[in-house]
UniProtKB/TrEMBL annotation, chain A:
Protease listed as a keyword: no
Family per record: Belongs to the cation transport ATPase (P-type) (TC 3.A.3) family. Type IB subfamily.
Source organism of this protein record: Hymenobacter chitinivorans DSM 11115
PANTHER family the record matches: ATP7, ISOFORM B (PTHR43520), P-TYPE CU(+) TRANSPORTER (PTHR43520:SF8)
Bilayer topology: Multi-pass membrane protein
Protein name (database record): Cu+-exporting ATPase
From TrEMBL, chain B:
Protein name (record): Cupredoxin-like domain-containing protein
TM annotation in the entry: 6-25
Family annotation (InterPro entries): Cupredoxin, EfeO_Cupredoxin
Domain EfeO-type cupredoxin-like: 17-124
Membrane found in the keyword field: yes
Keyword Transmembrane helix annotated: yes
This protein's UniProt keywords: Membrane, Transmembrane, Transmembrane helix
C-alpha cells in the first residue's frame, strides 16, 4: 500500500487549439505512472493533475505533455498586477505595430494601383497598353493588399458569420470582396463580359483604397482609444513600487510592495510616496493627497491620523503601521469603483444599443436591394457596374463604429477625469442623472459646515491677559474628553498657548469641568456651572455672551479663583469653500436647499451666511428621506449631498446621491457619486462634469446617427435621379474612417475638463 | 424584364430573406453551466467572431465563473461588457480571461463586445 499522500499541481498548457487537444493532453497525463487523475480545461488552458510524488514529478508531467505534442508554460512566481498590466500593454503595442505595418503595405500598393487604374482615363495612352496585361498587373498588386493587409476583415467576417453575428468587418469583407470578385472575373474571363456588350471593367483601385482607408481609420481609432483610459492608467501608475519596512530588530529594508503585510511598520522619508494605507505612528508631515481627493493643498498628518497609499509625502518624515494592503487600499477601491462605472451602461445609450443589434444585417439587406434596383432600372450597358458600385458604397459607408463608440468612450474619459478631481462616479447612469439635477439638497452638518465644533470667539474681561486665561483653560480641557473641550484645546494650540500642568481635575456632568492650575481653581462650563459655584457674571461679559447666544452659538464661561474672567463662543463653523460653491451652483440655475437637525435660529444663521434662502430646520435623521420626497413631489430632480450613516436613506431616495468625504462606507454605498474632498466644491465639479459629458455623448450620437442615416441613402444612389450624384465607394471608405475618429476625438475633448 | 433581371431580382430578394432569417430567427447555441464541487458554476466560452456558446444558463444565487478564451486578434472582440454587472474587461488575444459574478436575481442579461456588435445572453433561472 502506498503511504505517500498525493499532491496536486496546475500546469499551464500551450498549443491547444480545440477541445480534442485537451482530451489528448488529458489522456497522455493519465497514462503517466503515478498520476491518479488529470483534468484539462481547454478554455482556461490549465491541467489540474493529482499525482504521487514518489512516482511522478512536475518534470515527468511536463514530459508527458510535451510527448503529446503540446507545451507547458513556466509561470513566473508572484507576478504582480503591474507586471500583468505591462504584459498586456506589450501585447497591445505589438498588435498596434502589426496594424500599422498592414496599413503601410496597403497604402504603398494603393499608391501604385491608383495611377495605373487611371490610365483608362487617357484613351491615347490606353491604345498603347495591353488592357489584359495591365489588369493582370493590377490583380497581382491587389492580392497582397487583400491577403495581407485586409486578411483580418475576411477572417473576422467568416468567424462572425459562423456565429450568426455580423460586425463592421462583415460589411467591409462583403463590400471589398464583391468588388474584387467582379474584377477578378473581368480579368480572367473578359470574353464573358464583351460577348454581352459590357466593358470588362476592374475595381482593384476601389478594393485596395478601401482597405487602406479603413485601416487608416483603425490606426487612428486604436491610438485614440488608448488615450481614453489614460487617466485610469496614470492613477494606477501612482502606486509606489517598494516600501521601506522596519524589521523587528530595527533594521530598515526596502521590499517590493506585494510583500508588505498587515501591521508592518513602514518608514516614509521626505519626498517619498506612501506605500500603502495605514495609521501614522511617529513623526509628522504634510501629505499631498491630490491624487485621491483632488485637493491641491497638502494635509497635515500627526500620530493617529490615517495615511493612504500613493499619496506623496512632502518635507517631514514619519513611520506608519500598515492597516490595508492590495485590493483593500483606498487607491485600489477607487480604481475598482471607476472600472465598475466604465463597465456600466448609460440609459442614453439604449437606442444606440438597439440600433447596433440589428444594424449590420439590415445594411446588408439594404445593399442587396440597392443592387437589385440598380440592376433592374439602369441602362443595360452600365447596369452591372452601377449596381456593383452602389452595393459596395452602401456596405462601406454604413460602419456602425461611430455608434458603438459614442457613449462608452465619453464615459471612459469622464469617469477617469472625475477620479482625478476626487469625484468618484459609480455608474454611467449616475452620471446621466446628475445632468438633470435642478435642486441640490445639502445636509448642513459636515457638508456646509465642518461637522465639528470650533472656537469662534474668545472674549476676556477688561484687565485680564487673554493669553494667560487661554493657557489656564486649555490646561483643564486637556484632561477632558468632551468634544467641546477638544475644540478649546485645538484653539489654544492654534494660538501657540503654552501647555500647563493641571491637578484635581473633575468633570461636572452636563455642566463643564474644573481643575487646579498653578494653585488656582479654574472652572469652564455653562452658566449653570458658574451659578452653582457661586460665581457672578459681570456685565462686561454678560453682553458678549448674549451676543454669541443670539448667533446660535454655544457659550462656555471661564472662572479663575472664583472670578468670571472670560467667555468662549463655540460653533460648528462653515467651511471656507461652502459659500463660493453654493453660489456657483446657483449660477448654473440650480436651487440649493439646506436641511439640518438644528433649531430654526441656527439654521437661519448658517443659511444666511452661505446665501441659501430655502432651508428645513429641526429635521430628525429618519425624516431626511421624506424631505427629499417632498422636493421630488414638487417636480424637482433632486441631488442629495450628505456625509453620515444617517444620510444613507436620503442619499438612496434622491435622484442622485452624493456622499461627501470618503467618510462612511454606508453613505458611499447609497450614493451614486462619492466626493473624496470634504467640501462642496466637489458637488460643483460633479455636476459640471456630468453636464459636459452628456453634452459630448449627445453630439456623438447625433453625428453617428446623422452620418449613417444620410450616408446610406446617398450611397444607395437616392440622389442620382435628381442631381446625378453617386457616392464613390472610396469616398465612402474615407468618410467611414473619419466618422469613428471624429467621435473619439470629440470624447477626448473631455480630457481638458477643468473643475470651475 | 429580361432573364438577367428576373434572375438578379429573385436572387437578391432570396438572399435578403436568408440574411434576415439567418441573423434574426435561426436557433442559437445554448449551454448550461457545469457546477463544481465548490458550488461555482463554470462556463467556458470561446470568443471568435462571436461567443460560443452564446446563450448561457445559470442558477440564481450561486457564483458564476465565465472563462472567456479569445481565439482571435481581431479588435472587434477585444473588450467584453456585462453592463448589468458593471463589468468591462479587456480580453487579451489567445488568452483566457476569467470573469466572476454572483447573479442575485433571475432574468436575461446581455453581454456584448465593446461596440455592442457581438452579443451573448446570460440567463439566470
Amino acid at each position: 500500500m502506498n503511504t505517500v499522500a498525493p499532491e496536486t499541481t496546475t500546469l499551464d498548457i500551450e498549443g491547444m487549439t480545440c477541445a480534442s487537444c485537451a482530451a489528448f493532453v488529458e489522456k497522455s497525463l493519465t497514462r503517466t505512472p503515478g498520476v491518479q487523475s488529470a483534468l484539462v480545461n481547454y478554455a482556461t488552458e490549465k491541467a489540474t493533475v493529482q499525482y504521487l510524488p514518489d512516482q511522478a514529478s512536475p518534470t515527468t508531467l511536463k514530459e508527458a505533455v510535451v510527448k503529446a505534442g503540446y507545451g507547458v508554460v513556466e509561470r513566473a512566481p508572484d507576478t504582480s498586477a503591474a507586471d500583468r498590466q505591462a504584459a498586456l500593454d506589450e501585447q497591445k503595442a505589438r498588435t498596434y505595430q502589426q496594424l500599422k505595418r498592414r496599413f503601410w503595405v496597403a497604402v504603398g500598393l494603393a499608391v501604385v494601383i491608383m495611377p495605373l487604374s487611371m490610365l483608362m482615363l487617357w484613351p491615347a495612352l490606353l491604345q498603347r497598353v495591353n488592357m489584359q496585361g495591365l489588369n493582370y498587373i493590377l490583380l497581382l498588386l491587389t492580392l497582397p493588399v487583400l491577403l495581407y493587409s485586409g486578411r483580418e476583415f475576411y477572417v473576422s467576417a467568416w468567424n462572425g458569420l459562423r456565429h450568426r453575428a455580423a460586425n463592421m468587418d462583415t460589411l467591409i469583407a462583403v463590400g471589398t470582396g464583391a468588388a474584387f470578385a467582379y474584377s477578378l472575373a473581368a480579368t480572367v474571363v473578359p470574353g464573358f463580359f464583351t460577348s454581352r456588350g459590357l466593358m470588362p471593367e476592374v475595381y482593384y483601385d476601389t478594393t485596395a483604397t478601401i482597405i487602406a482607408l479603413i485601416l487608416l481609420g483603425k490606426v487612428l481609432e486604436q491610438r485614440a482609444k488608448t488615450q481614453t483610459s489614460a487617466a485610469m492608467k496614470s492613477l494606477l501608475g501612482l502606486q509606489a513600487k517598494t516600501a521601506r519596512v522596519v524589521r523587528p530588530g530595527g533594521q530598515e529594508i526596502d521590499v517590493p510592495l506585494e510583500q508588505v503585510q498587515l501591521n508592518d511598520v513602514v518608514v516614509v522619508r521626505p519626498g517619498e510616496k506612501v506605500a500603502t494605507d495605514g495609521v501614522l505612528l511617529e513623526g509628522a508631515s504634510a501629505v499631498d493627497e491630490a491624487m485621491l481627493t483632488g485637493e491641491s493643498l497638502p494635509v497635515e498628518k500627526k500620530p493617529g491620523d490615517a495615511v493612504f497609499g500613493a499619496t506623496l509625502n512632502t518635507t517631514g518624515s514619519f513611520r506608519f503601521r500598515v492597516t490595508k494592503v492590495g485590493a483593500d487600499t483606498m487607491l485600489a477601491q477607487i480604481v475598482k469603483l471607476v472600472e465598475d462605472a466604465q463597465g456600466s451602461r448609460a440609459p442614453i445609450q439604449r437606442l444606440a444599443d438597439k440600433v447596433s443589434a440589428i444594424f449590420v444585417p439590415t445594411v446588408v439587406v439594404i445593399a442587396l436591394l440597392t443592387f437589385v434596383l440598380w440592376f433592374d432600372l439602369a441602362p443595360v450597358e452600365s447596369r452591372l457596374p452601377l449596381a456593383l458600385v452602389n452595393f459596395v458604397a452602401v456596405l462601406i459607408i454604413a460602419c456602425p463604429c461611430a455608434l458603438g463608440l459614442a457613449t462608452p468612450t465619453a464615459i471612459m474619459v469622464s469617469t477617469g477625469k472625475g477620479a482625478e478631481h476626487g469625484v468618484l462616479i459609480r455608474s454611467a447612469e449616475a452620471l446621466e442623472k446628475a445632468y438633470r439635477v435642478d435642486t441640490v439638497l445639502l445636509d448642513k452638518t459636515g457638508t456646509i459646515t465642518r461637522g465639528e465644533p470650533a472656537v469662534t470667539d474668545f472674549i476676556v474681561a477688561p484687565g485680564q491677559d487673554a493669553r494667560r486665561v487661554l493657557q489656564l483653560v486649555a490646561a483643564v480641557e486637556r484632561q477632558s474628553e468632551h468634544p467641546l473641550a477638544a475644540a478649546v484645546v485645538r484653539y489654544a494650540e492654534a494660538q501657540d498657548a503654552a501647555a500647563l500642568p493641571a491637578t484635581s481635575f473633575r468633570a461636572v456632568a452636563g455642566h463643564g469641568a474644573a481643575a487646579t492650575v498653578e494653585s488656582q481653581v479654574v472652572l469652564i462650563g455653562n452658566r449653570r456651572l458658574l451659578q452653582e459655584e457661586g460665581v457672578v457674571l459681570p456685565p462686561e461679559l454678560e453682553t458678549p455672551a448674549a451676543e454669541l447666544l443670539s448667533q446660535a452659538q454655544t457659550v462656555l464661561y471661564v472662572a479663575v479663583a472664583g472670578r468670571a474672567v472670560g467667555v468662549l463662543g463655540v460653533a460648528d463653523t462653515v467651511r471656507n469653500t461652502s459659500a463660493a460653491a453654493i453660489r456657483q451652483l446657483q449660477q448654473q440655475g440650480i436651487e440649493v436647499v439646506m436641511m439640518t437637525g438644528d433649531n430654526p435660529q441656527t439654521a437661519a444663521a448658517v443659511a444666511a451666511q452661505v446665501g441659501i434662502t430655502r432651508y428645513f430646520a429641526e429635521v430628525l435623521p429618519p425624516d431626511k428621506a421624506a424631505k427629499v420626497q417632498e422636493l421630488q413631489a414638487e417636480g424637482r430632480t433632486v441631488a442629495m449631498v450628505g456625509d453620515g450613516i444617517n444620510d444613507a436613506p436620503a442619499l438612496a431616495r434622491a435622484d442622485i446621491g452624493l456622499a461627501i468625504g470618503a467618510g462612511t462606507d454606508v453613505a458611499m454605498e447609497a450614493a451614486g457619486i462619492t466626493l473624496m474632498r470634504s467640501d462642496l466644491q466637489g458637488v460643483v465639479t460633479a455636476i459640471a462634469l456630468s453636464r459636459q459629458t452628456i453634452r459630448v455623448i449627445r453630439q456623438n450620437l447625433f453625428f453617428a446617427f446623422i452620418y449613417n442615416s444620410l450616408g446610406i441613402p446617398v450611397a444607395a444612389g437616392l440622389l442620382y435621379p435628381v442631381f446625378g450624384w453617386l457616392l464613390s465607394p472610396m469616398l465612402a471608405a474615407g468618410a467611414m474612417a473619419l466618422s469613428s475618429v471624429s467621435v473619439l476625438t470629440n470624447s477626448l475633448r473631455l480630457r481638458s475638463f477643468r473643475a470651475n | 424584364m429580361d432573364t438577367a433581371e428576373i434572375f438578379v431580382t429573385l436572387g437578391g430578394l432570396g438572399l435578403a430573406a436568408f440574411v434576415i432569417w439567418y441573423f434574426f430567427f435561426s436557433a442559437r447555441q445554448t449551454a448550461a453551466a457545469a457546477s463544481t464541487a465548490g458550488g461555482v458554476q463554470q462556463v467556458a466560452i470561446t470568443v471568435k467572431g462571436g461567443y460560443s456558446p452564446e446563450v448561457i444558463e445559470v442558477e440564481r444565487g450561486q457564483p458564476v465563473q465565465l472563462s472567456f478564451y479569445r481565439a482571435e486578434e481581431n479588435s472587434c472582440s477585444e473588450e467584453l461588457l456585462l453592463p448589468d454587472f458593471s463589468i468591462r474587461r479587456e480580453l487579451p488575444a489567445f488568452r483566457t480571461t476569467l470573469i466572476e459574478l454572483l447573479p442575485q436575481r433571475a432574468g436575461e442579461f446581455e453581454f456584448t463586445c465593446g461596440m455592442g456588435m457581438l452579443r451573448g445572453r446570460l440567463i439566470v433561472k
